[in-house]
Amino acid sequence: MAEILKPTDENLRILREFLRLGGLVAVPTETVYGLAANALDADACAKIFEAKKRPSNDPLICHVASYEALEAFCETNEASKILAEAFWPGPLTFVLPKKDTIPSIVTADLDSVAVRSPNHPVFRQLIEGCDFPLAAPSANPFAYISPTRASHVEANLGDRIEYILEGGPCEYGVESTIVDLRDPTNPKILRYGALPVEKIENALKKRLPRPTPKLDQEIIAIAPGSLPKHYSPRTPLELRASTVSERELIESDQTTAYLLIRKPKSARAANIHWLSEKGKLETIASSLFAKLRELDDAEYQRIIAEEAPELGLGLAINDRLRRASFR
Ligand code: AMP
Ligand code: MG
User: Which residue's C-alpha comes closest to atom 10 of ligand 1?
Assistant: First the structure.
């Protein structure tokens, strides 16, 4: 079983050396837990695909300590500079033209690379002492619910990796927002995530093309991991565009779990669950994956989930729920 290590200076030293020599370590970030390897070591990165059972055509995000560190790995531009100044370190990933230093296994043979500088204090302490970037997808088996606690990683990958670095529950609880900056004059949102798109648009002073379920095929051609089925519990999940009525909740039977955006007015039963007291999007996002896991483990026959409002973080929450509901 994997060992869960506290982020002491000594443990961080051990883990950096383990990574440098080609090992895999699950690490906390402010979005979700990642499964990290030395991004310059193709054999180490191959182990990520193997441990997650991730198809080789689904590229990895490379994590760096600073914007300046990008120089060695990709071609930066004016748009990446503006966005890094506004949002790094933080939950925003750039897709930029890659340099040959990044092995092709990391980028699934694409001529671009996805890069981000995370701001979780434990991750920063780890990566600031590494002289290599860390390739790190979410630390979950391919297509299952992403992990937002060290215990989630242990439950799913504990028998396939040696170390999990403890960093507490993830602050945002959904993955980073991804923006395609290959052409700096025409940036596109590739994935909704923890940084609301409206903030990115404000920083760049323009509206950006956004992903929609209809554009999935187009987005997959650029970002091959954007599959319709993802973040999925084993239990079938049905997504409701409108609020579930109190009457339906009261009449519901115990084999169906309800996953509501906010606490219902009066209906209370063991099968009725909510992601926030009052509908605050930050709270909904940070509790979403942990709650989905809890319901999946409770062996309900189905889960009925409510959509969040379609703005800000709500876009990322709904994107995850939609993919979780795909059959
Ligand atoms: P994950 O690390 O599991 O959150 O997934 C990372 C996602 O980032 C992948 O599934 C891709 O869709 C996207 N991605 C990674 N690298 C690239 C790239 N070079 N170009 C476009 N999208 C990328
Ligand atoms: Mg993932």
Answer: 225
pLDDT the model gives residue 260: 98
Same-domain status, 152 and 218: yes
Across the chain, what does the average pLDDT equal? 97
Residue 42: both structure tokens together: 């193709």
Structural domain including 189 reads: 3-222
Please indicate, yes or no, if residue 63 is contained in any of the structural domains: yes
Q: Whose CA is nearest to atom 3 of ligand 1?
A: 137
Residues 168 and 309 in one domain: no
Express each pLDDT in 171-189 by its tens digit. 999 999 999 999 999 999 9
Ligand 1: which residues within 6 Å by Cβ?
58-59, 61, 95, 107, 110, 112-114, 137-138, 175, 178, 190, 222-226
Q: Please give the distance, rounded to the nearest whole angstrom, from the Cα atom of residue 226 to the centre of ligand 1.
A: 8
Question: What is the 249 CA–ligand 1 centroid distance (Å)?
Answer: 38
pTM of the complete model = 0.97
User: Do 155 and 292 share a domain, yes or no?
Assistant: no
Kindly identify the ligand whose nearest atom is closest to the C-alpha of 178. 1
Same domain, 217 and 247: no
| pLDDT digits 0-9 by tens, 127-136 | 999 999 999 9
Asked if the model's pLDDT at residue 222 lies above 80, the reply is: yes
Residue with tokens 């930066």: 76
Total tally of structural domains belonging to the chain: 2
Q: Check whether residue 111 and residue 166 sit in a common domain.
A: yes
Q: Considering only CA atoms, which residue is closest to atom 5 of ligand 1?
A: 137
List strands edge to edge, sheet with 25-27: 3-5, 163-165, 25-27, 34-38, 134-135, 61-63, 112-116, 92-97, 177-180, 188-191
Query: d(Cα 79, Cα 49) in Å, to the nearest integer?
Result: 31
Q: Domain of 200: which CATH number? A: 3.90.870.10
